[in-house]
Amino acid sequence: MYAFEFERPSTVADAAKALGEEDAQALGGGQTLIPTLKQRLAMPSKLVSLSGIAEIKGVCKADDGALCVGGGTTHATVASEAKADYPALAALAGNIGDPAVRNRGTIGGSIANNDPAACYPSAVLASGATVVTNKREIAADDYFQGLFETALDEGEIVTEVRFPVPEKASYQKFEQPASRFALVGVFVAKYADGVRVAVTGASESGVFRWSEAEAALSSNFAPEALDGMAPPADGMISDLHGSADYRAHLVGVIARRAVAAAS
Amino acid sequence: MSQIHVTATINGDETEFLCDPTETLLDVLRDHLDLTGSKEGCGSGDCGACSIILDGRLVCSCLVLAAEAEGRSVETIEGMAEGDKLHPLQEKFIEHAALQCGICTPGILVAAKNLLERNPNPSEEEVRYWLAGNLCRCTGYDKIIRAVMDTAAEMRGAA
User: Fold this and answer.
1) ipTM at complex level
2) Does residue A31 sit at the B interface (CB-CB below 8 Å)?
3) What is the pLDDT of residues A53-64, one digit of tens each?
4) Which residues belong to CATH 3.30.465.10 in chain A?
5) Considering the domain A55-163 in this protein, what is its CATH number?
6) Tens digits of per-residue pLDDT, B37-48?
7) CB contact under 8 A, A34 and B59
8) Which residues on A lie below 8 Å from B19 (Cβ)?
9) Using CA atoms, how far apart are residues B31 and B83, in angstroms rounded to an integer?
10) For residues A203 and A242, what is the distance between their CA atoms, to the nearest angstrom?
11) Is some CB atom of chain B closer than 8 A to the CB atom of A40?
12) Which CATH superfamily is A168-262 part of?
């Protein structure tokens, strides 16, 4: 690692102030950032750890029924505390990586990084969630802007993610078995006003909504509604784990599984 | 770059150390505190050889900055046996020959102990799922899983 200074504030306001310094970088659970630093792929002047900020940790329910997850909440906490209110979200969190990753990694860190194969972005997008930061509220549809790209400004901190709870939902992923990242992951969420389908792991542009499947499922919420359907292979990731055609095919298969499993 | 003063409880003892901001908890355990049971395998959180318990939670110490340990409780493999008396998991790993080269063993023991504290009666699937972050390139896992299952059964019997 290149040398950096370290600060561990206890409030969002102090963290925002520290992040105002040139080349300062927020540290969530560090499960991606620390390996990145070890590879010398980043050179922050200062790391601002968010782990000491109690106000951005935990899961609660808002008056309108939405599930609110603090940006600094670990995957393990979401897996246990979201179980009763949003079981599909809890199941997703409980299958990220391995126990050590789930005990450190945070939802805010995951969606701020926006890895194209991460699980959480699909839940945020399929749920039409609201990403709350220290400055504003951002709709999920505006938040994810491509590979590792988000609407966040420099130094902006994800303080909370608000998930409207669907009638039925499921996340299914086809794991890359070594990393347990999604080779393809599909989150299906059925709301009173329609179905939202978000796909991770597949596209070179990161997480995306599969609108054709949303239309089909909104009129008939059954796996058969997606029979023979797959998104175009253009723009899908092609690597040693799978070709673009293979990933496109998997999207259809995994989406049907998610609909079948939705509860 | 000034060093950071950290106070943490390590295997029950209040411990103070100075570290650079860039040092991981694994670096401090091994290089400053001579607790070399935790191993550095990959250094990127994939292999689990550096597994420790931080405030009751299994983590990879190679992906935790040492400065983050301030005020927290750290348990390592060195705290597992009581003097000469091995933990039941350690006994069973010997009995089942659940290791060959041994480099993954401290991490697997720490992870398995944390599992049994949370779930004294895990299914084989639960054991495999829990140990997903601990890689062993020698045993093929079968003996490890059997040793953990056998320990769980024995500890339930003794309780």
Assistant:
1) 0.95
2) yes
3) 999 999 999 999
4) 55-163
5) 3.30.465.10
6) 999 999 999 999
7) no
8) none
9) 23
10) 12
11) no
12) CO dehydrogenase flavoprotein, C-terminal domain (3.30.390.50)
Domains delineated in chain B? 4-78 (3.10.20.30), 88-158 (1.10.150.120)
Instruction: Compute the nearest-CA separation of B111 from chain A (Å).
Output: 9
Helices (H), chain B: 25-27, 88-95, 105-118, 124-130, 142-158
Q: What CATH number is given for A5-49 in this structure? A: 3.30.43.10
Residue whose C-alpha is closest to residue A153's, from A133, A123, A139:
A133
Distance CA B79, CA A111 (A): 36
Contact at 8 Å (CB) between A251 and A186? yes
In this complex, the residue of B20, B64, B132 whose CB is nearest that of residue A104 is B64
Q: Is the dihedral of CA A75, A66, A211, A131 positive or negative?
A: negative
Residue A179 has a pLDDT of 85
Beta bridge partners of B24: B65
Structure tokens of A228? 């023979």
Categorize the per-residue pLDDT at B1 as very low, low, confident or very high, splitting at 50, 70 and 90: low
Which region, left, alpha or beta, applies to residue A246 given φ > 0 means left and ψ of -120 to 50 means alpha? alpha
Residues of A in contact with B54 (CB under 8 A): 103
Distance in Å, alpha carbon of B88 to nearest chain A alpha carbon: 22
